[in-house]
Amino acid sequence: MLKYTTVEKNDFLLVSLEGDLDIEGTEVVNEELIPELVHYHSINISLEKVPFVDSSGMGLLISLVNTLKEQNVKITISDVQDDVFEVFELIQLPEILGEEVFI
Amino acid sequence: MFRRELSLNNPEPDNKTKTLEREIKLARNIQMKLLNGNNPKIENGQISGISIPARLIGGDYYDFYLLSNGKLRIVIGDVMGKGIPAAMLMILTRGAFRSAAESTKGPGETLTAMNNAMYEDLRTLGSFVTVLCADWDPCQRTLTYASAGHNLPLVVKSIHEVFEAPKIKGVMLGGLPSTSYEENSIKIEEEELVFFYTDGITEALNQDGEMFRIDRLEETLKKNYGLDVKEMEESITNSIDKFTENVPQKDDITMVLLKVNHDQTNITSYNSPVINP
Protein backbone atom coordinates (compact mmCIF):
# COMPACT_ATOMS: atom_id res chain seq x y z
CA MET A 1 0.00 0.00 0.00
CA LEU A 2 1.31 3.43 -0.93
CA LYS A 3 2.29 5.77 1.92
CA TYR A 4 3.92 9.17 1.98
CA THR A 5 5.76 11.47 4.35
CA THR A 6 6.38 15.19 3.98
CA VAL A 7 9.07 17.55 5.26
CA GLU A 8 8.40 21.29 4.94
CA LYS A 9 11.07 23.98 4.58
CA ASN A 10 9.70 27.49 4.08
CA ASP A 11 7.67 27.27 0.88
CA PHE A 12 9.35 24.07 -0.23
CA LEU A 13 7.90 20.64 0.44
CA LEU A 14 9.77 17.36 0.16
CA VAL A 15 7.42 14.42 -0.39
CA SER A 16 8.71 10.86 -0.05
CA LEU A 17 6.50 8.15 -1.52
CA GLU A 18 6.88 4.63 -0.17
CA GLY A 19 5.51 1.42 -1.68
CA ASP A 20 4.26 0.33 -5.11
CA LEU A 21 2.66 3.06 -7.18
CA ASP A 22 -0.29 1.24 -8.74
CA ILE A 23 -4.10 1.37 -8.81
CA GLU A 24 -4.24 0.86 -5.02
CA GLY A 25 -2.65 4.29 -4.63
CA THR A 26 -5.49 6.11 -6.48
CA GLU A 27 -7.23 7.39 -3.33
CA VAL A 28 -3.97 8.35 -1.59
CA VAL A 29 -2.78 10.40 -4.57
CA ASN A 30 -6.07 11.94 -5.71
CA GLU A 31 -7.82 12.47 -2.40
CA GLU A 32 -4.95 13.13 0.02
CA LEU A 33 -1.74 14.08 -1.74
CA ILE A 34 -2.93 16.42 -4.51
CA PRO A 35 -5.25 18.53 -2.26
CA GLU A 36 -2.39 18.90 0.24
CA LEU A 37 0.28 19.80 -2.32
CA VAL A 38 -1.57 22.52 -4.23
CA HIS A 39 -0.90 24.92 -1.34
CA TYR A 40 2.88 24.96 -1.88
CA HIS A 41 5.03 26.86 -4.38
CA SER A 42 7.73 24.29 -4.83
CA ILE A 43 7.68 20.51 -4.33
CA ASN A 44 10.05 17.61 -4.84
CA ILE A 45 8.71 14.08 -4.92
CA SER A 46 11.23 11.39 -4.06
CA LEU A 47 10.58 7.94 -5.53
CA GLU A 48 13.53 6.37 -3.74
CA LYS A 49 11.26 3.95 -1.87
CA VAL A 50 9.02 3.16 -4.84
CA PRO A 51 10.21 -0.14 -6.32
CA PHE A 52 7.40 -0.56 -8.85
CA VAL A 53 5.14 1.64 -10.94
CA ASP A 54 2.50 0.09 -13.20
CA SER A 55 0.43 1.76 -15.93
CA SER A 56 -2.15 3.02 -13.41
CA GLY A 57 0.66 4.42 -11.25
CA MET A 58 2.09 6.28 -14.22
CA GLY A 59 -1.33 7.73 -14.88
CA LEU A 60 -1.47 8.90 -11.26
CA LEU A 61 1.98 10.47 -11.56
CA ILE A 62 0.99 12.30 -14.76
CA SER A 63 -2.22 13.50 -13.17
CA LEU A 64 -0.30 14.64 -10.06
CA VAL A 65 2.33 16.58 -12.02
CA ASN A 66 -0.17 18.12 -14.45
CA THR A 67 -2.58 19.20 -11.71
CA LEU A 68 0.22 20.87 -9.76
CA LYS A 69 1.62 22.56 -12.87
CA GLU A 70 -1.83 23.96 -13.65
CA GLN A 71 -1.80 25.49 -10.16
CA ASN A 72 1.63 27.04 -10.91
CA VAL A 73 3.37 24.78 -8.43
CA LYS A 74 7.00 24.05 -9.35
CA ILE A 75 7.40 20.29 -9.19
CA THR A 76 10.36 17.95 -9.55
CA ILE A 77 10.73 14.17 -9.21
CA SER A 78 13.96 12.65 -7.86
CA ASP A 79 15.65 9.38 -6.86
CA VAL A 80 13.80 7.21 -9.39
CA GLN A 81 15.02 3.60 -9.20
CA ASP A 82 16.74 2.29 -12.37
CA ASP A 83 14.10 -0.36 -13.13
CA VAL A 84 11.33 2.18 -12.76
CA PHE A 85 13.11 4.82 -14.84
CA GLU A 86 13.59 2.30 -17.64
CA VAL A 87 9.80 2.00 -17.89
CA PHE A 88 9.42 5.81 -17.71
CA GLU A 89 11.79 6.13 -20.66
CA LEU A 90 9.97 3.45 -22.63
CA ILE A 91 6.78 5.49 -22.52
CA GLN A 92 8.75 8.74 -22.89
CA LEU A 93 7.49 10.09 -19.59
CA PRO A 94 10.25 12.77 -19.42
CA GLU A 95 8.99 14.18 -22.76
CA ILE A 96 5.39 14.09 -21.54
CA LEU A 97 5.99 15.74 -18.18
CA GLY A 98 8.90 17.93 -19.30
CA GLU A 99 12.59 16.96 -19.06
CA GLU A 100 13.07 19.49 -16.25
CA VAL A 101 10.76 17.55 -13.93
CA PHE A 102 13.24 14.68 -13.43
CA ILE A 103 16.29 15.64 -11.38
CA MET B 1 -48.77 0.70 -13.65
CA PHE B 2 -47.84 3.59 -11.41
CA ARG B 3 -46.58 1.18 -8.76
CA ARG B 4 -44.50 -0.68 -11.32
CA GLU B 5 -42.88 2.53 -12.55
CA LEU B 6 -42.23 3.57 -9.01
CA SER B 7 -40.49 0.30 -8.22
CA LEU B 8 -38.38 0.52 -11.35
CA ASN B 9 -37.26 4.03 -10.54
CA ASN B 10 -36.57 3.29 -6.91
CA PRO B 11 -35.41 -0.30 -6.76
CA GLU B 12 -34.75 -1.95 -3.41
CA PRO B 13 -31.04 -2.37 -2.55
CA ASP B 14 -31.21 -6.09 -3.47
CA ASN B 15 -32.73 -5.28 -6.83
CA LYS B 16 -30.10 -2.61 -7.41
CA THR B 17 -27.33 -5.14 -6.79
CA LYS B 18 -29.00 -7.66 -9.09
CA THR B 19 -29.44 -5.05 -11.82
CA LEU B 20 -25.81 -4.02 -11.49
CA GLU B 21 -24.62 -7.63 -11.57
CA ARG B 22 -26.73 -8.33 -14.65
CA GLU B 23 -25.39 -5.26 -16.43
CA ILE B 24 -21.78 -6.12 -15.61
CA LYS B 25 -22.33 -9.65 -16.93
CA LEU B 26 -23.85 -8.26 -20.13
CA ALA B 27 -20.93 -5.85 -20.48
CA ARG B 28 -18.54 -8.76 -19.98
CA ASN B 29 -20.31 -10.76 -22.70
CA ILE B 30 -20.07 -7.82 -25.10
CA GLN B 31 -16.41 -7.35 -24.36
CA MET B 32 -15.55 -11.03 -24.61
CA LYS B 33 -17.33 -11.32 -27.96
CA LEU B 34 -15.60 -8.23 -29.35
CA LEU B 35 -12.23 -9.22 -27.97
CA ASN B 36 -12.09 -12.92 -28.58
CA GLY B 37 -13.34 -12.92 -32.16
CA ASN B 38 -12.16 -15.44 -34.73
CA ASN B 39 -8.42 -15.72 -35.06
CA PRO B 40 -7.32 -15.36 -38.68
CA LYS B 41 -6.35 -18.64 -40.32
CA ILE B 42 -2.92 -18.52 -41.86
CA GLU B 43 -1.69 -21.00 -44.41
CA ASN B 44 1.67 -22.39 -43.33
CA GLY B 45 1.48 -20.36 -40.19
CA GLN B 46 -0.61 -19.84 -37.10
CA ILE B 47 -1.87 -16.88 -35.15
CA SER B 48 -3.75 -16.79 -31.89
CA GLY B 49 -4.69 -14.34 -29.17
CA ILE B 50 -6.17 -14.57 -25.68
CA SER B 51 -7.09 -12.06 -23.00
CA ILE B 52 -7.81 -13.00 -19.38
CA PRO B 53 -9.22 -10.08 -17.36
CA ALA B 54 -8.23 -9.72 -13.71
CA ARG B 55 -11.78 -8.72 -12.86
CA LEU B 56 -15.06 -9.46 -14.59
CA ILE B 57 -14.12 -7.13 -17.41
CA GLY B 58 -10.74 -5.70 -18.33
CA GLY B 59 -8.81 -3.03 -20.17
CA ASP B 60 -6.47 -5.11 -22.30
CA TYR B 61 -7.03 -5.32 -26.01
CA TYR B 62 -5.82 -7.20 -29.07
CA ASP B 63 -7.08 -7.29 -32.60
CA PHE B 64 -6.23 -8.34 -36.15
CA TYR B 65 -6.98 -6.61 -39.42
CA LEU B 66 -6.29 -7.91 -42.91
CA LEU B 67 -4.92 -5.24 -45.23
CA SER B 68 -5.63 -5.11 -48.93
CA ASN B 69 -1.93 -5.67 -49.69
CA GLY B 70 -2.12 -9.11 -48.08
CA LYS B 71 -0.41 -8.13 -44.84
CA LEU B 72 -1.96 -8.73 -41.45
CA ARG B 73 -2.06 -5.82 -39.00
CA ILE B 74 -1.80 -6.93 -35.37
CA VAL B 75 -2.48 -4.72 -32.37
CA ILE B 76 -2.16 -5.30 -28.64
CA GLY B 77 -2.85 -2.69 -25.99
CA ASP B 78 -3.23 -2.00 -22.31
CA VAL B 79 -5.57 0.70 -21.02
CA MET B 80 -4.53 2.38 -17.78
CA GLY B 81 -6.48 0.99 -14.84
CA LYS B 82 -8.73 -2.01 -14.51
CA GLY B 83 -12.38 -3.02 -14.44
CA ILE B 84 -15.28 -1.07 -15.91
CA PRO B 85 -13.50 2.30 -16.51
CA ALA B 86 -10.69 0.55 -18.39
CA ALA B 87 -13.18 -1.57 -20.35
CA MET B 88 -14.96 1.55 -21.60
CA LEU B 89 -11.69 2.98 -22.88
CA MET B 90 -10.77 -0.35 -24.41
CA ILE B 91 -13.85 -0.13 -26.64
CA LEU B 92 -12.75 3.40 -27.63
CA THR B 93 -9.29 2.03 -28.51
CA ARG B 94 -10.82 -0.75 -30.59
CA GLY B 95 -12.85 1.75 -32.61
CA ALA B 96 -9.82 3.97 -33.15
CA PHE B 97 -7.74 1.01 -34.35
CA ARG B 98 -10.40 -0.32 -36.70
CA SER B 99 -10.85 3.05 -38.41
CA ALA B 100 -7.13 3.85 -38.45
CA ALA B 101 -6.11 0.41 -39.76
CA GLU B 102 -8.09 0.91 -42.94
CA SER B 103 -6.66 4.29 -43.89
CA THR B 104 -3.03 4.13 -42.79
CA LYS B 105 0.04 2.70 -44.53
CA GLY B 106 2.03 1.28 -41.65
CA PRO B 107 1.93 0.62 -37.91
CA GLY B 108 3.59 3.97 -37.13
CA GLU B 109 0.91 5.86 -39.06
CA THR B 110 -1.79 3.75 -37.39
CA LEU B 111 -0.56 4.77 -33.94
CA THR B 112 -0.38 8.43 -34.98
CA ALA B 113 -3.97 8.28 -36.26
CA MET B 114 -5.14 6.49 -33.09
CA ASN B 115 -3.42 9.09 -30.89
CA ASN B 116 -4.93 11.94 -32.91
CA ALA B 117 -8.38 10.39 -32.57
CA MET B 118 -8.11 9.60 -28.86
CA TYR B 119 -5.82 12.28 -27.43
CA GLU B 120 -8.48 14.80 -26.39
CA ASP B 121 -10.71 12.15 -24.81
CA LEU B 122 -7.83 10.53 -22.95
CA ARG B 123 -6.63 13.89 -21.60
CA THR B 124 -10.15 14.79 -20.49
CA LEU B 125 -10.38 11.47 -18.69
CA GLY B 126 -6.81 11.62 -17.34
CA SER B 127 -6.01 8.24 -18.83
CA PHE B 128 -3.72 6.70 -21.42
CA VAL B 129 -3.24 3.53 -23.43
CA THR B 130 -0.05 1.69 -24.34
CA VAL B 131 -0.26 -0.02 -27.74
CA LEU B 132 2.00 -2.07 -29.95
CA CYS B 133 1.04 -2.30 -33.61
CA ALA B 134 2.73 -4.60 -36.12
CA ASP B 135 2.31 -5.51 -39.79
CA TRP B 136 3.08 -9.11 -40.68
CA ASP B 137 4.12 -9.59 -44.29
CA PRO B 138 3.70 -13.32 -45.05
CA CYS B 139 5.54 -13.11 -48.40
CA GLN B 140 8.66 -11.34 -47.18
CA ARG B 141 8.37 -12.83 -43.67
CA THR B 142 8.96 -9.42 -42.15
CA LEU B 143 7.38 -7.95 -39.08
CA THR B 144 7.24 -4.14 -39.06
CA TYR B 145 6.29 -2.68 -35.72
CA ALA B 146 5.76 0.58 -33.85
CA SER B 147 5.19 1.10 -30.16
CA ALA B 148 3.18 3.62 -28.17
CA GLY B 149 4.88 2.96 -24.85
CA HIS B 150 4.15 -0.75 -25.01
CA ASN B 151 6.59 -3.58 -24.34
CA LEU B 152 8.20 -5.06 -27.41
CA PRO B 153 7.45 -8.56 -28.70
CA LEU B 154 9.72 -11.52 -28.04
CA VAL B 155 10.97 -13.73 -30.86
CA VAL B 156 11.57 -17.38 -30.01
CA LYS B 157 14.21 -18.69 -32.42
CA SER B 158 14.99 -22.08 -30.90
CA ILE B 159 14.97 -24.03 -27.65
CA HIS B 160 18.09 -22.05 -26.75
CA GLU B 161 17.37 -18.59 -28.08
CA VAL B 162 14.78 -15.92 -27.50
CA PHE B 163 15.27 -12.19 -28.01
CA GLU B 164 13.30 -9.00 -27.59
CA ALA B 165 12.61 -7.05 -30.79
CA PRO B 166 15.00 -4.05 -31.01
CA LYS B 167 13.83 -1.12 -28.91
CA ILE B 168 12.01 1.79 -30.49
CA LYS B 169 10.67 4.80 -28.69
CA GLY B 170 7.08 5.93 -28.75
CA VAL B 171 4.83 7.90 -26.43
CA MET B 172 1.74 6.11 -25.11
CA LEU B 173 -1.59 7.18 -26.63
CA GLY B 174 -2.89 10.23 -24.78
CA GLY B 175 0.65 11.27 -23.77
CA LEU B 176 1.46 13.99 -26.29
CA PRO B 177 -0.63 15.59 -29.07
CA SER B 178 0.28 15.16 -32.77
CA THR B 179 3.15 12.81 -32.11
CA SER B 180 4.68 10.45 -34.67
CA TYR B 181 5.92 6.91 -34.15
CA GLU B 182 9.11 5.24 -35.33
CA GLU B 183 8.94 1.89 -37.13
CA ASN B 184 11.36 -1.00 -37.25
CA SER B 185 11.34 -4.25 -39.24
CA ILE B 186 12.68 -7.69 -38.40
CA LYS B 187 12.83 -10.93 -40.36
CA ILE B 188 11.04 -13.92 -38.91
CA GLU B 189 12.34 -17.28 -40.11
CA GLU B 190 10.50 -20.57 -40.50
CA GLU B 191 9.50 -22.26 -37.24
CA GLU B 192 10.07 -19.09 -35.23
CA LEU B 193 7.41 -17.68 -32.93
CA VAL B 194 6.61 -14.04 -32.15
CA PHE B 195 5.10 -13.38 -28.73
CA PHE B 196 3.23 -10.11 -28.09
CA TYR B 197 2.07 -9.52 -24.53
CA THR B 198 0.86 -7.10 -21.86
CA ASP B 199 2.61 -6.49 -18.54
CA GLY B 200 -0.01 -8.50 -16.62
CA ILE B 201 2.15 -11.52 -17.51
CA THR B 202 5.56 -10.26 -16.38
CA GLU B 203 4.08 -8.50 -13.35
CA ALA B 204 1.99 -11.46 -12.08
CA LEU B 205 2.76 -11.89 -8.38
CA ASN B 206 3.31 -15.04 -6.33
CA GLN B 207 2.66 -15.51 -2.61
CA ASP B 208 6.01 -13.95 -1.68
CA GLY B 209 5.18 -10.81 -3.67
CA GLU B 210 7.73 -11.79 -6.33
CA MET B 211 6.99 -10.99 -10.00
CA PHE B 212 6.90 -13.54 -12.84
CA ARG B 213 9.30 -11.27 -14.76
CA ILE B 214 10.51 -11.49 -18.33
CA ASP B 215 13.19 -14.10 -17.44
CA ARG B 216 10.58 -16.71 -16.47
CA LEU B 217 8.51 -15.86 -19.54
CA GLU B 218 11.54 -16.33 -21.81
CA GLU B 219 12.41 -19.66 -20.14
CA THR B 220 8.84 -20.91 -20.65
CA LEU B 221 8.89 -19.82 -24.29
CA LYS B 222 12.22 -21.54 -24.98
CA LYS B 223 11.25 -24.73 -23.12
CA ASN B 224 8.08 -25.02 -25.20
CA TYR B 225 9.63 -24.10 -28.56
CA GLY B 226 8.08 -26.17 -31.33
CA LEU B 227 4.56 -26.31 -29.91
CA ASP B 228 1.70 -24.89 -31.91
CA VAL B 229 0.29 -21.49 -30.87
CA LYS B 230 -2.64 -22.86 -28.86
CA GLU B 231 -0.40 -25.30 -26.95
CA MET B 232 2.12 -22.52 -26.32
CA GLU B 233 -0.67 -20.25 -25.07
CA GLU B 234 -1.72 -22.98 -22.64
CA SER B 235 1.87 -23.56 -21.49
CA ILE B 236 2.28 -19.87 -20.69
CA THR B 237 -1.00 -19.67 -18.73
CA ASN B 238 -0.14 -22.91 -16.87
CA SER B 239 3.31 -21.60 -16.06
CA ILE B 240 1.84 -18.34 -14.66
CA ASP B 241 -0.80 -20.30 -12.68
CA LYS B 242 1.89 -22.57 -11.23
CA PHE B 243 4.00 -19.56 -10.27
CA THR B 244 1.22 -17.47 -8.71
CA GLU B 245 -0.45 -20.48 -7.02
CA ASN B 246 -3.63 -19.10 -5.46
CA VAL B 247 -2.72 -15.42 -5.45
CA PRO B 248 -5.59 -13.52 -7.14
CA GLN B 249 -4.68 -12.14 -10.57
CA LYS B 250 -3.90 -8.43 -10.15
CA ASP B 251 -3.78 -7.22 -13.74
CA ASP B 252 -5.29 -8.28 -17.07
CA ILE B 253 -3.23 -10.84 -18.97
CA THR B 254 -3.14 -10.77 -22.77
CA MET B 255 -0.97 -12.47 -25.37
CA VAL B 256 -0.86 -12.79 -29.13
CA LEU B 257 1.22 -15.51 -30.76
CA LEU B 258 2.36 -15.67 -34.38
CA LYS B 259 4.17 -18.75 -35.60
CA VAL B 260 5.69 -19.22 -39.02
CA ASN B 261 5.56 -22.75 -40.37
CA HIS B 262 7.51 -24.13 -43.31
CA ASP B 263 6.81 -22.70 -46.77
CA GLN B 264 5.24 -19.41 -47.69
CA THR B 265 2.57 -18.08 -45.37
CA ASN B 266 -0.71 -16.81 -46.73
CA ILE B 267 -3.56 -15.32 -44.81
CA THR B 268 -6.77 -17.03 -45.82
CA SER B 269 -9.38 -15.56 -43.54
CA TYR B 270 -9.66 -12.88 -40.96
CA ASN B 271 -12.02 -11.06 -38.63
CA SER B 272 -11.84 -7.54 -39.97
CA PRO B 273 -15.25 -5.91 -40.09
CA VAL B 274 -17.58 -6.34 -43.02
CA ILE B 275 -18.36 -2.75 -43.98
CA ASN B 276 -20.82 -3.55 -46.78
CA PRO B 277 -22.32 -6.94 -46.04
Automatic annotation (TrEMBL), chain A:
Pfam families: STAS. Coiled coil: none annotated. One of its GO terms (molecular function) is anti-sigma factor antagonist activity. It comes from the Bacteria. Transmembrane segments: none annotated. InterPro entries: Anti-sigma_ant (IPR003658), STAS_dom (IPR002645), STAS_dom_sf (IPR036513). Residues 2-103 form the STAS domain. Belongs to the anti-sigma-factor antagonist family. This is Anti-sigma factor antagonist. It comes from Salinibacillus xinjiangensis.
